[in-house]
Amino acid sequence: MEAHQAESQSPIVSRASAKKELPRHFRDNRHVWVFIELERGQVHPVSIELLGEGRKLADKLGVQLAGVVIGTAEDLGVRSAIAEAFAYGADLAYLVESPLLSDYRNEPFTKALSDLVILHKPEILLLGATSLGRDLAGSVATTLETGLTADCTELDVDADGSLAATRPTFGGSLLCTIYTLNSRPQMATVRPRVMATPKRVTHAIGPIIRHDLMMIEEEIVTKVLGFLPDERSEKINLAYADIVVAGGLGIGTAENLERVMVLARTIGGEFGCSRPLVQKGWMEVDRQIGQTGQTIRPKLYLAAGISGAVQHRVGVEGADLIVAINTDSNAPIFDFAHVAVVADAVALLPALTAAFTRRLAPHTNRCK
Amino acid sequence: MKGEKFHAIVVGAGMSGNAAAYAMAMRGLKVLQLERGEYPGSKNVQGAILYADALEKIIPDFRDDAPLERHLVEQRFWIMDGASHTGIHYRSDDFNERRPNRYTIIRAQFDRWFSAKVREAGCTVLCETLATRLKQDSRGNVTGVYTDRPGEAISADVVVLAEGVNGFLGTRGRLRETPKPDSVALAVKEMHFLPEDVIAERFGLTADEGCVIEAGGTISRGVPGLGFLYTNKESISIGIGCLVSGLAAAMERPYDLLEAFKHHPSIRPLIAGSEVKEYAAHLIPEGGFTAIPQLFGNGWVVVGDAAQLNNTAHREGSNLAMTSGYLAGKAIADVKDRGGSMVKSNLALYKSMLDSSFVIKDLMKHKEMPRFLHANSQNLFVSYPKLISKAAQSFVRVDGNSKLDKEKATSAAFLKARSRWGLISDAVRLARAWR
Amino acid sequence: MNIVVCIKQVPDSAQIRVHPVTNTIMRQGVPTIINPYDLFALEEALKLRDRYGGKVTVLTMGPPMAKQALEKALAYGADEAVLLSDRHFAGSDTLATSFAISRAITNLGLRHAPEIVFTGKQTIDGDTAQVGPGIARRLELQQLTYVTKIVSVDLHAREITVERRSEGGTQMLKSQLPCLISVLEGVNALRRGSVADALRAARAQIPTWRAADAGIVEIANCGLRGSPTVVKRVFAPTPRAEKAIQIKLNDDQCGPLVDEIIASIFEHQPALEASFQPNGLT
Amino acid sequence: MKAIVKRRVEDKLYQNRYLVDPGRPHISVRKHLFPTQNLIALTQVCPAKCYQLNDRRQVIIVSDGCLECGTCNVLCGPDGDIEWTYPRGGFGVLFKFG
């Protein structure tokens, strides 16, 4: 790291306008990388969303997009990961294969990814903000002593080619744009369902650059004893539901939440709630939608009695259609809802359920 | 740490608790203070006005670093009916003195400052600790306090009950009764935030001058009550307090009264465009002198709201609380210095100090006021306000009627409403309650 | 056991309001609290100490005011506390923060290096979850994040078995001490400190370490200058341009209103109607 | 009149800072078939609207949001209609201003 010119303890603001002169040895970092995460042999949807985003950034920079796959050769997932990378716009793929990489462990994955980056010098490295992605990104960024911005809601490239990563701050009340000034790669993680899923591109498989993992099992301290998949029958996957119905404080009591669940079931959606309800113990934390809960991007989001504080807004803004029901015509949720219904949700929900049932009845021609 | 013993335990970190703890710690006593809130002030609610005169006796240089909002230069008394207010305003440049007499404060910030002083004086302060029960020996003498934390009771020679109007420990230890519905008022209050200059503009204030509005009338819908509006630096505290017995009898909702008060044509423009950031509620002792419980006993004394020390006529509370706390602390330290034990006879010193101070004198003077307000609530809070506002309007409005006719109509209205005898008896009883 | 728990004093973000007109943060009345996720880490550490003996030291990096957070941690039952506070730390991003904290932990453990360093899952103001991994990497601790349960600890063999949350399930790992553990929320319930704990906390003289006291010489790695990332712009989310379709409840019965809502939904999203398949009406 | 909007008490309470002590409500209403007049008054007088009538016209309490003013204790404590205490230390309402 080139020594910075001795500056007095400058306040944050002036530092922000500090010139971005990249130290020499970072000047030849090029290309955009996306880490393809595998979840039990399946490519995690967030990686596909990042390939879409990465393609956009690469085109703006006029560089290549690479998919990075880390895993074991005999795992079919690895094969499909590479195919998916090219199917969603990658120009090339890096593959680190080793039997040590069958289950996710921090040490071998960090070494594999860090060595690749040191060798091939990307300028931008994107990972999904999953529990795996966050665990890995943190240790890789520290190993490389580079900048890492978490949970980005928007990625763009400035005229001078530096990555402008925008993320929520102050608990989601505001957004801030963060730059990685004098180090490369510029790392960022993005939450699932924040970026749009790109269209598949029937793209010929491009070049695959393989590397071995410079590690032996004895060097790795942590062993995986086993893995217990979530056997809960219907796993709460709020993040990927097409339809979500959520209740907020305007629902009044825990009992009234039943009306939210009934409507959700009637229209084949998931149900959730805003943070205060989890704090009151009316719903479990997996049902919480918002900054500190799940980010959702459903086709239809129905908010009943939710005021729509910024912390909640950040988690739902991606929905295609937001229908908000609240008695307070000045509720903040009406600032970003598509359809604003000024009424009491508790009374309206049963009526809505009935109406939907009538409307859907002809489709399902099931007798009542 | 087997049952550590203290000279004194103070229950509560409000005005009276902090004053008592400070007084004793400054005299070198080993003092422990228990506060059930997350920090001193997180459970305290008040209008809130600070009376410098009382605090100067305890911390003379408090103005150097205490968090004060505005010093008061204007007091407005209003009598309100549905659409109007008739008032007396007193504003004087004298109040722009070097050591101003009254300030508006924000309790969460002020109590935290006061508690820091108490800690500096050497008192140990435990927050997030609820005192659940008094430790009493077989003869009922108080020897310590149980808390809701694991571990045994904490012992002390004397316990200072500064626990607020509800007197949770005092009533459980049968040292006093739960306050009666007709001797406490429920005040509900909101904090409205506005830019500093907007507040200054709306009340004609410069720098950190402050203004207070206190209003009675139809806003409490016949229940004995008082609306208030205090100007802080960049916020306005606005609320309304009504006698609990009155509210219960009239089945009135306090938050509806507050909304109506906020929407009153005389009030609405003053808080227009504000951002509300908190809604609080608190009981205010209204019983006056007759409601004061036993103030001391073997191993304990009662101070502040817990002793119902609140002057309803002048709406003063924090000065009585601070003074009673300070005097209790002083008395305990004096008894200790002359080697006395914390028995009832010695602790009587606290009561005698209190009697000779303004605290009891003022309360004695107005001891009939609560009953007077309570007995005549319909007249005082409904009929008179309407009569007065009609009289004022007729006096002001120019409509071609002769002044003589107008005066005749006004006096006719008063006579019709209260009859000659009623008017005279009201005046006499008011004077007697005030004397 | 020598256990270190890293905590942070953060603004209570649930109380943060953006001024509707000026879009600036309304600072008044936003109290500071211990980062809620850190309390689960503290409880986990206290449980280990109760079982295996030793001491729990709580460490935080922040302004002098952060001492209040340490006082509260002591009141819950922690044994010792250290505040890391220095003008040079101002403006640190996660990389610079993990550098300073790692040095302080090394300094803490000169006589007896800590077996476990605990952190919360993430902070509610930073939300990056990067400082834990940063510390683990710098102190070469085994990195065990999103831990839901400490199954067993064998001090002689210096082994630890944990369960951690990972995508789609729970991983069981066997690892070695020393390690860094970030604890998932909801795995335990914080205890109430005893009277003795509260008294000890109220009287504790909490040391404040400046950079030098923490054994930090390379000031260039701290604060703004040690931070590769920098915040360039802070702004409020822009409200949606076109106003929402307002549907007012004219009279009390919901009938017409409901049909209007459904109509506007299907008109806005025609494809939706097809995808409505009530899944097994229970 | 955007300036001051008629706001329901739930909206007022939402502004407050409150730490729920899950599973440990600090006030309970004694079982009764027919509520006393004072208990019924609580459904109107309680500033946080914690008391409501259930469908069998009995008075029930949801103590979340309680402002700990003590009005219910003053009206119904002495004759035992309710069991009244403060929340545990550090829980309940936490006034930012007070």
TrEMBL record, chain A:
Its cofactor is FAD. Keywords: Electron transport, FAD, Flavoprotein, Nitrogen fixation, Transport. Binds 1 FAD per dimer. GO terms for molecular function: electron transfer activity; flavin adenine dinucleotide binding. It comes from the Bacteria. FAD binds at residues 274-275, 288-292, 305-312, 326. One of its GO terms (biological process) is fatty acid beta-oxidation using acyl-CoA dehydrogenase. Residues 32-224 form the Electron transfer flavoprotein alpha/beta-subunit N-terminal domain. CDD domains: ETF_alpha. The keyword Transport applies. SUPFAM superfamilies: Adenine nucleotide alpha hydrolases-like (SSF52402), DHS-like NAD/FAD-binding domain (SSF52467). May play a role in a redox process involved in nitrogen fixation. Belongs to the ETF alpha-subunit/FixB family. FixA and FixB form a heterodimer. This is Electron transfer flavoprotein subunit alpha/FixB family protein. It comes from Rhizobium leguminosarum. The lineage of its organism: Bacteria, Pseudomonadati, Pseudomonadota, Alphaproteobacteria, Hyphomicrobiales.
From TrEMBL, chain B:
One of its GO terms (molecular function) is FAD binding. It comes from the Bacteria. Residues 369-435 form the FixC-like C-terminal domain. The keyword Oxidoreductase applies. Its cofactor is FAD. Keywords: FAD, Flavoprotein, Oxidoreductase. Part of an electron transfer system. Belongs to the ETF-QO/FixC family. This is Protein FixC. It comes from Rhizobium leguminosarum. The lineage of its organism: Bacteria, Pseudomonadati, Pseudomonadota, Alphaproteobacteria, Hyphomicrobiales.
From TrEMBL, chain C:
It comes from Rhizobium leguminosarum. Residues 22-218 form the Electron transfer flavoprotein alpha/beta-subunit N-terminal domain. This is Protein FixA. Belongs to the ETF beta-subunit/FixA family. May play a role in a redox process involved in nitrogen fixation. FixA and FixB form a heterodimer. The lineage of its organism: Bacteria, Pseudomonadati, Pseudomonadota, Alphaproteobacteria, Hyphomicrobiales. SMART domains: ETF (SM00893). It holds the Pfam family ETF.
UniProtKB/TrEMBL annotation, chain D:
One of its GO terms (molecular function) is iron-sulfur cluster binding. Keywords: Electron transport, Iron, Iron-sulfur, Metal-binding, Nitrogen fixation, Transport. It comes from the Bacteria. It holds the Pfam family Fer4_ETF_QO. SUPFAM superfamilies: 4Fe-4S ferredoxins. InterPro entries: 4Fe4S_Fe_S_CS, ETF-QO/FixX_C, Fd_FixX. Residues 43-92 form the ETF-QO/FixX C-terminal domain. To ferredoxins from P.putida and C.tartarivorum, ferredoxin I from A.vinelandii, ferredoxin II from D.desulfuricans. Could be a 3Fe-4S cluster-containing protein. This is Ferredoxin-like protein. It comes from Rhizobium leguminosarum. The lineage of its organism: Bacteria, Pseudomonadati, Pseudomonadota, Alphaproteobacteria, Hyphomicrobiales.
